[in-house]
Structure formats: structure tokens, C-alpha cells
Amino acid sequence: QQPVQSPQAVILREGEDAVINCSSSKALYSVHWYRQKHGEAPVFLMILLKGGEQKGHDKISASFNEKKQQSSLYLTASQLSYSGTYFCGTSRGGGSNYKLTFGKGTLLTVNP
Amino acid sequence: EAGVAQSPRYKIIEKRQSVAFWCNPISGHATLYWYQQILGQGPKLLIQFQNNGVVDDSQLPKDRFSAERLKGVDSTLKIQPAKLEDSAVYLCASTGGGRGETQYFGPGTRLLVL
Fold this sequence. Notes:
The complex is a heterodimer.
Chain A: E1 4-6, E2 9-13, E3 18-23, E4 30-36, E5 43-49, E6 54-57, E7 60-65, E8 70-75, E9 84-91, E10 101-102, E11 106-111
Parallel strand pairs in A: 2-11
Antiparallel strand pairs in A: 1-3, 3-8, 4-5, 4-9, 6-7, 7-8, 9-10, 9-11
Chain B: E1 5-7, E2 10-13, E3 19-24, E4 31-37, E5 44-50, E6 53-56, E7 65-68, E8 75-79, E9 88-95, E10 104-105, E11 109-113
Parallel strand pairs in B: 2-11
Antiparallel strand pairs in B: 1-3, 3-8, 4-5, 4-9, 5-6, 7-8, 9-10, 9-11
């Protein structure tokens, strides 16, 4: 079951904040966030495991609400380098059941 | 540490031709994935290997796609015969296991079928 991401696209000015959401109708084991720039491979940002946790590094953080099966990615004081398409990938199990299903992505554009 | 390597980076073929992509995962990573990413969409899992065995190939169009991972290291994905709708980026990823099992992606092979 493909997770649903929102919004589909967002345009920011440098220094503004953004929130990208990812939701699933099924119980999740983990949520992974990736950023992909045009013509490049997806780059891993962070992973959140069931148990409802929040993570962050620098000005990018994320949360995972296990009860709602929702994850949010928070980008604060955005920089030009944050531009790209953000994907969430969800897994319903670990071990041999571990496989990611990706959302359609959120295109983030940061302008000067 | 070297990342996931893929080749070729670009390939243009005509429909009904065959094509093969190669992937070398991060050293020591037991699990290898092949994804298909159509323009404007997220990656879609085609096949997952654990060492040299197939764990999941439920979304692999087996009438035209095949993949192997001999000796549990590098892998080859083949399409024969190719269709127009196979135009996409083919991404390879690997993971070393453990809690969380972060997947690391290669640069991908961009395929255009004319």
C-alpha cells in the first residue's frame, strides 16, 4: 500500500520553514525519508522506527506518530540546498519482511 | 567507503531490444534491491535479494524482466524484450541489515526505449 505524501509541491523563500507529511492506512514498522535532486540518486536523511519517536539533525527533523501511522518531516530555516524531491518510504515489517514502499514525493523548491 | 556502483548510467534502445544493467553493492551488504523509478514517481521495488537468494519478486514483470545475483555480491537486471513503458531510471540499493536497515542507493541507470 503506497503511503500518501502531502503537499505534492511547495515553494519557499530561503529561511522559511516547511512540513512534509506521509501517511499510511496500514500499521508501519518504520518510516524512511530521502531527498532526491534531479538526475541523482535518493539520499538517505533519516529513519524512524515504531514506538513513536522524533529525530533530527541540523535543521531537518522528523516525527513518527505510531497511532496515526503518520510521519512528518520538518525543515526549518530552509537553505537553497534543500531543494529537491522528498520521498517517504515505509516498511510494514523488519527482517525478511523489510521492504520499502515509496510515496509519490513532494517537490520542494527554495528560492533566494 | 565506496558506495553502490551501477552501470551503464544511460542507455537508449529501441522497443523489442534487450538491455542489461549491472549493480555492485556496498561491500559486505547482504541485501540488494532493484527499483524502477518512472518520471515523477517514487521508486517501485522490482526485486529483493538476500545474499544470492530472491526474497521478493512479486512486482517483477517476469515475462520480460529477469535478475540474478550470483555469488551474493553484484547483480544484473535484464529486460527482454523492452517496451516503451519500460523507460525509467533503474535504481539499485543495498543494506547491511541491523535495526532500521537503511538502504543506500546507487546513481541509477536511465533507460529510454524508443
